[in-house]
């Protein structure tokens, strides 16, 4: 139930709807009972056994409103039968039944209306908070998580929490009150019969509880499996070209079928137990009713301790308890699924963010002097990727990082942007540790262009505006020109308003990369990080992109992570890395003259 308490802050905003739901549920439960009590005078009129009240009752206090209402009704029935005949008295009690059922269903609608506002409002806010958490967690968190599992928590688990936890409102208000009012009325009619009914209720509850055992554990396993199969679908769509080119469709189909078969077994097991709740509670209820008919029938026919009309009304009230009892048993089963779902949702919401800003972190608005990387060590798991790594990047200079794959080049980009934090050592901008700078202001100072052209299924304009949300069309076009991209954008059917498809797949690799560069140009940051921005391109596209990069790097501090060494020969300082360490550094000509690692790399690429 702790997770239910965690939902209360989300519901506080909608407490008006919660209060109204409770009020209307109380009225529903009251009129639900009264609608069956109204059958007593109807049957008495039918059997010509109406209680005679000749004197008009006088209202004395609220505590006696029940007896006053009863006497007032029978006074009017007595006068109607005397003056107009029993058929008009029958019409009166039938009208009373219709009005009580009308009010019962009217309050039912109002209660449902308010719980709907509460449920949907909390669902929206919960998803909003979960998305904010998902987007705020560091990149390192998702290197260990399946995207499909996170998506399943956002979509399926949050909805499960909504459906199951707000069933508690029915569980703690409407249905128990319906049962309570019915039982109070049943006690009023016959204490002996009601005590007889109570003998069977614990037996029914014990049987239903036993069947619902282990439901939470199975629901948790089903939700985990659901996340896994969504991951398979997401990976299939992302890697469809590879799957098809390697004829791996059957392999992925087997994985998918195995997952949905597991999900089928779990869902069937959960569904069968849920489906059993309603018929089982109804059967146990009907069994109780049958025994009650025998026992109560003897009280009417043999003992004559209860009137027939009262007994029939009693039976309808007893049967009326079955519906809320079924609802409670189904809701208690659903609650177990909700508990499993809520644990998965709150596991994300309560995840600690190791890279959250310090309380006294400063907003750094400009870059004045230099970037300093001081004796840093970093590891993703056990082995260090960077070892005692130190460099200095003066303002306005271009620094290139080169080396074989796995030497730690791209890790520098991840650390500078605080996608990850260093294990030892420090990174400073103008002498201030980046851990003492707010993440937002740090990333405002940096533009990042990666080798993967990350674009979104939207227009060119919307993709570029990520760099500067309030930019004008003229500024966008200027950025596209600097990025050497406007020459193809202007020829598109809708220009900058052309949709580029999922991941920009309507464009070539070179075109996509130039749009990435245009986005960074529009942002106009003082520090630019280019992480192998041309490594995935063909020679012709590389030339276009290289021109765009040179345009962009003018008058900026740039850190270029390069695979193709021909692109960084003009750099002010080239740092050669090997297994996380610096083995050489200097300008292009100086490193060639050293006849060391750099020259070997250049010679190897010249023969490619």
From TrEMBL:
Residues 72-337 form the ABC transmembrane type-1 domain. The chain crosses the membrane at residues 20-47, 88-107, 179-208. One of its GO terms (cellular component) is plasma membrane. One of its GO terms (molecular function) is ATP hydrolysis activity. The keyword Iron does not apply. It holds the Pfam family ABC_membrane. SMART domains: AAA. The keyword Nucleotide-binding applies. It is found in: Cell membrane. CDD domains: ABC_6TM_MsbA_like. This is Antibiotic ABC transporter ATP-binding protein. It comes from Flavobacterium kingsejongi.
């Amino acid at each position: 139930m702790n997770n239910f308490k965690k939902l209360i802050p989300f519901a506080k905003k909608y407490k008006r709807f919660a209060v109204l739901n409770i009020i209307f549920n109380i009225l529903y439960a009251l009129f639900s009972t009264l609608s069956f009590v109204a059958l007593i005078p109807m049957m008495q009129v039918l059997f010509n056994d109406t209680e005679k009240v000749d004197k008009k009752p006088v209202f004395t206090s609220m505590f006696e409103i029940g007896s006053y209402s009863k006497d007032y009704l029978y006074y009017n029935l007595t006068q109607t039968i005397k003056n107009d005949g029993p058929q008009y008295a029958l019409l009166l009690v039938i009208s009373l039944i219709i009005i009580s059922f009308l009010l019962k269903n009217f309050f039912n609608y109002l209660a449902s209306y308010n719980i709907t506002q509460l449920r949907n409002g909390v669902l929206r806010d919960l998803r909003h908070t979960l998305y904010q958490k998902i987007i705020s967690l560091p990149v390192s968190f998702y290197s260990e998580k399946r995207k499909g599992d996170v998506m399943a928590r956002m979509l399926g688990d949050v909805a499960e929490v909504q459906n199951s936890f707000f069933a508690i409102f029915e569980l703690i208000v409407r249905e128990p009150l319906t049962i309570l009012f019915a039982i109070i009325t049943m006690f009023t009619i016959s204490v002996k019969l009601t005590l007889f009914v109570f003998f069977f209720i614990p037996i029914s509850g014990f049987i239903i509880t036993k069947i619902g055992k282990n439901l939470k554990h199975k629901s948790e396993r089903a939700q985990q499996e659901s996340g896994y199969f969504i991951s398979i679908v997401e990976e299939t769509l992302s890697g469809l070209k590879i799957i098809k080119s390697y004829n791996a469709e059957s392999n992925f189909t087997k994985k998918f079928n195995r997952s949905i078969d597991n999900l089928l077994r779990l869902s069937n097991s959960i569904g069968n137990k849920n489906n059993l709740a309603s018929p089982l509670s109804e059967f146990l209820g009907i069994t109780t009713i049958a025994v009650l008919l025998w026992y109560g029938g003897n009280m009417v026919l043999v003992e004559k301790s209860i009137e027939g009309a009262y007994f029939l009304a009693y039976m309808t009230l007893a049967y009326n308890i079955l519906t809320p009892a079924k609802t409670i048993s189904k809701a208690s089963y659903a609650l177990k699924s909700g508990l499993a779902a809520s644990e998965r949702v709150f596991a994300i919401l309560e995840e600690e963010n190791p890279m959250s800003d310090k309380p006294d972190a400063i907003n750094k608005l400009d870059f004045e002097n230099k970037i300093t990387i001081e004796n840093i060590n970093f590891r993703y798991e056990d082995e260090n990727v960077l070892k005692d790594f130190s460099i200095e990047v003066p303002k306005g200079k271009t620094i290139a990082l080169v080396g074989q794959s796995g030497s730690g080049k791209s890790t520098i980009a991840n650390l500078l942007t605080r996608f990850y934090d260093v294990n030892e050592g420090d990174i400073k901008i103008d002498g201030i540790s980046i851990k003492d700078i707010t993440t937002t202001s740090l990333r405002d100072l940096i533009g990042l262009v990666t080798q993967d052209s990350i674009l979104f299924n939207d227009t060119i304009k919307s993709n570029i505006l990520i760099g500067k949300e309030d930019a004008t069309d003229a500024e966008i076009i200027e950025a596209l020109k600097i990025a050497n991209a406007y020459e193809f954008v202007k020829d598109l059917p809708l220009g900058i308003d052309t949709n580029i498809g999922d991941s920009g797949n309507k464009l070539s690799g070179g075109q996509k990369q130039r749009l990435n560069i245009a986005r960074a140009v529009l942002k106009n940051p003082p520090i630019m990080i280019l992480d192998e921005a041309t490594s995935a391109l063909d020679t012709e596209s590389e030339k276009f992109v290289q021109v765009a990069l040179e345009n962009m790097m003018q008058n900026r501090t740039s850190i270029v992570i390069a695979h193709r060494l021909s692109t960084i020969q003009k750099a002010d300082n080239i740092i050669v890395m090997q297994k996380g360490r610096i083995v050489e550094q200097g300008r292009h000509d100086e490193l060639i003259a050293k006849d060391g690692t750099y020259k070997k790399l250049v010679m190897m690429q010249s023969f490619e």
